[in-house]
Amino acid sequence: MSSIIINKVSTEDVEIIQNLGIQTFSETFAEDNTEEAMKKYLEESFNTEKIKSELSNPDSLFYIAWEEDNPVGYLKVNTGNAQTELQDETSLEIERIYVKKSHHGKKVGQLLYNKALETAQQLGKSYLWLGVWEKNLRAINFYSKNGFVEFNKHIFRLGEEEQTDLMMKKNTGLDR
């Protein structure tokens, strides 16, 4: 495998984020959810206007993992009011670390996570937090291996179905 490069996303990268989001979310969750629920979620979460709005939000940062000219994953982190739940000014939310199935086990997720931790430290945040579906054991194991601990649960809606996400957090080593 050639080396992976992580680059900050610009507003011109809407289509890349859109395609990566649809592909990686589908690869990860399609077999556990109805086609109708998936279609609705993908249309709502990855439509052009929503992605443009997220990319232009100064409290959200996106990074793409590239293998040569091929985007293989991305990271979305949120601060301030962009955070989906806690909105604690001392925290950084990892909203998405999405990696193409073809690149699972190739350290792409680790590189994206490292970028999230580095970003939190650069912004002076004291902890990272995220929500992960309780049935996504691969992701839960990944975050646990990186020092995250469960601290709460919340409901994530996919179509008409309510699913339980584990909320996990990790201190950055910076105290405020």
UniProtKB/TrEMBL annotation:
<dbReference type="Pfam" id="PF00583">
    <property type="entry name" value="Acetyltransf_1"/>
</dbReference>
<protein>
    <submittedName>
        <fullName>GNAT family N-acetyltransferase</fullName>
    </submittedName>
</protein>
<dbReference type="InterPro" id="IPR050832">
    <property type="entry name" value="Bact_Acetyltransf"/>
</dbReference>
<dbReference type="InterPro" id="IPR016181">
    <property type="entry name" value="Acyl_CoA_acyltransferase"/>
</dbReference>
<feature type="domain" description="N-acetyltransferase">
    <location>
        <begin position="4"/>
        <end position="173"/>
    </location>
</feature>
<keyword id="KW-0012">Acyltransferase</keyword>
<keyword id="KW-0808">Transferase</keyword>
<dbReference type="InterPro" id="IPR000182">
    <property type="entry name" value="GNAT_dom"/>
</dbReference>
<dbReference type="GO" id="GO:0016747">
    <property type="term" value="F:acyltransferase activity, transferring groups other than amino-acyl groups"/>
</dbReference>
